[in-house]
């Protein structure tokens, strides 16, 4: 059977984690990284699921309009990750104190990490939202402040990174690990297959 492998892929993301995860799935792929410059401020009435779907689709649409000619036929992959606590999307920390406040809310509780993935090829689009349940141990103020001082929380939804020092706070996880880091690989794999591509 002949394999259909994409000649290249456009990753509509500034996230180094998404780049690394995608290369884990497709080590030889020619990647064109084109971050979308969007307003990602929280809309208070919007659910987490609606938000991640809207943003993942908007990121793909934004880069589609500015693609250099040589990448015009490549599939476009975009994603958005959000941390949701008791139904409320938390966003990313806006300051040191905000990061401390977010981690105080996550302390001793379970929350959901949701990622929407949008894979676009020509007029065909694959979309999915994946949820992972994550539980945190109870945190002291001192450990929260020391963690925020490392700088790790600042560019991450919910103010922590499970792939970094943040792992020290996680007591359990139910669902996809790569989803928490920003790109659920089992979903990207399925979406690529649905477009007819062979990955493995
Ligand atoms: C919860 C959690 C989030 N994150 C990251 C994944 C995402 O990169 C980020 C959520 O913000 P996003 O807006 O989804 O992504 P981004 O701004 O980093 O990149 P882009 O929009 O250009 O694609 O939080 C971790 O790296 N580890 C974690 O444990």
TrEMBL record:
The active site is at 80 (proton acceptor). SUPFAM superfamilies: ITPase-like. Its cofactor is a divalent metal cation. InterPro entries: ITPase-like_fam (IPR029001), Maf-like (IPR003697). The keyword Transmembrane does not apply. It is found in: Cytoplasm. Signal peptide: none annotated. Its EC number is 3.6.1.9. Keywords: Cytoplasm, Hydrolase, Nucleotide metabolism. The record marks 17, 81, 163 as: Important for substrate specificity. Its main location: cytoplasm. It comes from the Bacteria. It catalyses: dTTP + H2O = dTMP + diphosphate + H(+); UTP + H2O = UMP + diphosphate + H(+). Belongs to the Maf family. YhdE subfamily. Nucleoside triphosphate pyrophosphatase that hydrolyzes dTTP and UTP. May have a dual role in cell division arrest and in preventing the incorporation of modified nucleotides into cellular nucleic acids. This is dTTP/UTP pyrophosphatase. It comes from Marinospirillum insulare.
